[in-house]
Write a structure and sequence with these properties.
The protein has 104 residues and is mainly α. Helices cover 81% and strands 0% of the residues. The longest helix is centred in the middle third of the chain and has 72 residues.
Length: 104
């Protein structure tokens, strides 16, 4: 009887070792697949980050241009330019010369 018990233990220990190796392999495979997915996601996020940083720089430049335009719009020069261009107003001592429209 002792030989049967020894053989069963050997068979059981081999089976347990096989199961442990199989489980370990599955865990390693799952970790590898997950890490590959995370690596791809990281690359995508870096591209998105670069695009957003570019958009932020463009927005900052546009903001500075708008601030400069706002300051110009508060000057007397802007008011004079608008009065001349849109309303056709001139100073009394100015002479306005306009090109003749050609009717072809």
């Amino acid at each position: 009887m002792s030989k049967r018990v020894v053989r069963r233990k050997r068979k059981q220990s081999g089976f347990v070792l096989f199961l442990a190796m199989l489980i370990m392999f599955m865990v390693v495979a799952a970790c590898t697949v997950r890490s590959i997915g995370l690596y791809r996601k990281s690359k995508e996020l870096k591209v998105v980050k670069a695009n957003l940083e570019t958009q932020l720089q463009e927005a900052n430049i546009k903001s500075e241009q708008l601030k400069e335009k706002e300051l110009y719009m508060q000057t007397k020069d802007y008011i004079e330019d608008e009065a001349k261009n849109k309303l056709g107003l001139v100073y009394p001592d100015e002479i306005v010369i306009k090109p003749k429209d050609s009717d072809d």
